[in-house]
């Protein structure tokens, strides 16, 4: 989700030439400009982020960066620029390059709004799955993981014969079930768009067997989504509106429905003073949750305690981890950032 109004710090245009447009040259982390800070609220944070670490800006020049995904075989991160209907790739070796375009809207009829892909993920076979705003569907890329000439096949595009609003973020279970959120941020007129076919914004499950199921319609702006490592709990960010800026946690009932929905953490007060709202999130294999929210990336333990915030200075949309949990990659407005983590 891109905020309706944003202000950007002035950055030297030469930075993008330094680390965004050169390829094939290995660079050390010291070459990337530092920004922001890390606020610690709990002694255990030092086991996650070492004292003195700050976010690095590794690429810039985007309209609204979103949906970062680490590709382990290629050792690179890809991410969406939603207004540009594009996905970019970045690696330490090759820097910044266009990955594919179009990414989320494939119709030839021009339209406004945030048309590109949002959340990105890999299925069990390693194929790229996209939350496509403009096409209002969950789709799979039918070509190898490289540009150009992307081709997509619809995974699911409707529930109860009604088209989705604009699938936003998603996560696969170990069984191959797909959980995703569907706010209206990708509609041309957002929540007031007359083309909306649902009068709610939902959280859905598309089972590995091909069944689409509405899990809840009680959130005003469901956004980021994740599963606990044991897959007994579902986390969902709500970006604001009538239900405020909160993260929810749900248990799974025996029939797969959601049960015991409750607030995992409330960020409503922080939303009044810090830029951004609960958005994308990633759950580490030890249960630590990195969740973008007001001010940057909030770090939670499984009990819902806020251990600290990685403050980016930007409205921060989403985050992901590399295969070794060495870096947390963050999409923050016009930037791609990362911060080094403590590894065992």
Secondary-structure-based class equals mainly beta
Q: According to CATH, what is the class of the domain at 63-217?
A: Mainly Beta
What fraction strand? 35-45%
Give, in spatial order, the strands making up the sheet with the most strands: 1-24-23-22-21
In CATH, what is the homologous superfamily of the domain at 63-217?
Answer: TolB, C-terminal domain
SSE order, as H and E? HEEEEEEEEEEEEEEEEEEEEHEEEEEEE
For the termini, the CA-CA separation is 34 Å
CA gyration radius, whole angstroms? 19 Å
Q: Report mean pLDDT, rounded to a whole number.
A: 90
Low-pLDDT ranges: 3-29
Residues in helix, %: under 10%
- According to DSSP, the number of beta strands is 27
CATH fold name of the domain at 63-217: Neuraminidase
The CATH architecture term of the domain at 63-217 is: 6 Propeller
Largest sheet: 5 strands, antiparallel
Number of discrete helical segments? 2
Keywords:
5-stranded antiparallel β-sheet, 2 helices, Neuraminidase, 344 residues
SSE topology sketch:
Elements: H1 14-19, E1 37-40, E2 56-60, E3 65-71, E4 76-81, E5 86-91, E6 95-100, E7 117-122, E8 128-132, E9 137-141, E10 152-156, E11 158-159, E12 162-163, E13 170-172, E14 178-182, E15 202-206, E16 212-216, E17 222-227, E18 233-239, E19 245-252, E20 258-266, H2 268-271, E21 281-283, E22 289-293, E23 296-300, E24 306-311, E25 316-321, E26 327-332, E27 335-340
Antiparallel strand pairs: 1-24, 2-27, 3-4, 4-5, 5-6, 7-8, 8-9, 9-10, 11-12, 13-14, 14-15, 15-16, 17-18, 18-19, 19-20, 21-22, 22-23, 23-24, 25-26, 26-27
């Amino acid at each position: 989700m891109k905020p309706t109004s944003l202000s950007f710090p002035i950055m030297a245009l030469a930075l993008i030439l330094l680390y965004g447009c050169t390829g094939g040259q290995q660079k050390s982390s010291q070459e990337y400009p530092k920004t922001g800070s890390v606020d610690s609220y709990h002694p255990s944070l030092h086991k996650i982020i070492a004292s003195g670490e700050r976010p690095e800006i590794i690429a810039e020049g985007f309209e609204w960066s979103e949906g970062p995904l680490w590709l382990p075989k290629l050792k690179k991160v890809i991410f969406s620029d939603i207004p540009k209907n594009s996905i970019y790739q970045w690696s330490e070796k090759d820097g910044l390059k266009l990955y594919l375009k179009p990414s989320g809207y494939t119709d030839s009829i021009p339209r406004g709004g945030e048309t590109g892909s949002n959340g990105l993920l890999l299925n069990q076979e390693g194929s790229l799955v996209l939350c496509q705003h403009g096409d209002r569907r969950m789709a799979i890329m039918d070509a190898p993981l490289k540009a150009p000439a992307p081709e997509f096949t619809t995974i699911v595009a409707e529930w109860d014969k009604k088209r989705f609003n604009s699938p936003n973020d998603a996560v696969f279970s170990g069984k191959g079930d797909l959980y995703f959120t569907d706010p209206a941020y990708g509609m041309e007129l957002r929540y007031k768009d007359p083309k909306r076919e649902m009068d709610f914004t939902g959280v859905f499950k598309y089972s590995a067997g091909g069944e689409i199921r509405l899990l809840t319609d009680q959130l005003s702006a469901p956004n980021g989504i994740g599963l606990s490592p044991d897959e007994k709990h579902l986390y969902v960010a709500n970006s604001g509106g009538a239900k405020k800026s909160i993260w929810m946690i749900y248990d799974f009932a025996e029939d797969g429905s959601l049960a015991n929905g409750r607030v995992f953490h409330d960020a409503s007060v922080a939303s009044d003073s810090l830029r951004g709202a609960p958005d994308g999130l990633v759950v580490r294999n030890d249960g630590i949750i990195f969740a973008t929210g007001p001010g940057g990336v909030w770090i939670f333990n499984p009990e819902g305690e806020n251990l600290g915030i990685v403050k980016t200075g930007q409205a921060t949309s989403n985050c992901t981890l590399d295969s070794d949990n060495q870096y947390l990659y963050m999409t923050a407005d016009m930037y791609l950032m990362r911060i080094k983590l403590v590894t065992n």
